[in-house]
Design brief:
Rossmann fold; about 15% strand; alpha/beta; 6-stranded parallel β-sheet
Length: about 200
């Protein structure tokens, strides 16, 4: 059986890093995407057949270049784990600054769309799976998290759209809605269920 190929965004820390290392341990080749190459290389730890790709997923040209590198290296793609994200401003709706809200949506929703679109094109011929990291906030928002909740509800809509559009191509989608997970972010904000610090970006 051919080695399976996965692209993981936000692979430099937290859930993305854990998933990347798990797949590598099971024989997958992983293309790790994120904003900091040093963190990505730390995740991969010299694993053969893997790529560390520095990319801002909110920039369409960067996403196109990243997936072009994946296509050139592997020629196909089995799984995209759309994991990169940020919490955004910890303000109520009345105090939220739209520029900060828009930045959160750019990373969490627009970036997820760019990556899903690029992956979809790579999967058209042979099929594949796109896994979107949603959040409990895609179902029940936390207080003071309008930007994050909006972005994750958008991810839920994207997941449903991929399921419909992907059927003729044997492309399917899954969304995982994780609550508090024991990652670097949770260590920073504590386990009391409070709001995270503004602009804390997991995808670094």
């Amino acid at each position: 059986m051919d080695t399976r190929i996965a692209v993981i965004t936000g692979a430099g820390s937290g859930i993305g890093r854990a998933v990347a290392r798990t797949l590598i341990a099971r024989g997958w080749h992983v293309a790790a995407l994120g904003r900091r190459r040093d963190r990505l290389e730390e995740t991969l730890n010299g694993a053969p057949g893997c790529l560390a790709i520095e990319a801002d997923i909110a920039a369409p040209e960067a996403v196109r270049a990243a997936f072009a590198q994946v296509a050139e290296t592997y020629g196909r793609l089995n799984v995209l784990f759309n994991n990169a994200g940020m919490f955004g401003p910890a303000d109520d709706v009345g105090a939220a600054d739209w520029d900060e809200v828009a930045q959160t949506i750019d990373v969490n929703a627009t970036g997820a769309f760019y990556c899903a679109s690029a992956a979809f094109d790579l999967m058209r011929e042979h099929g594949g799976r796109i896994i979107n990291n949603g959040s409990i906030s895609a179902q029940v928002p936390r207080p003071h998290s309008a930007a994050y909740a909006m972005s994750k509800h958008a991810v839920a809509g994207l997941t449903k759209a991929i399921i419909i559009d992907g059927r003729p191509h044997r492309i399917t989608a899954t969304q995982i809605d994780i609550g508090n997970a024991a990652t670097e972010i949770l260590t920073a904000i504590g386990t009391g269920g409070g709001s995270p610090p503004a602009r804390w970006i997991e995808a670094c």
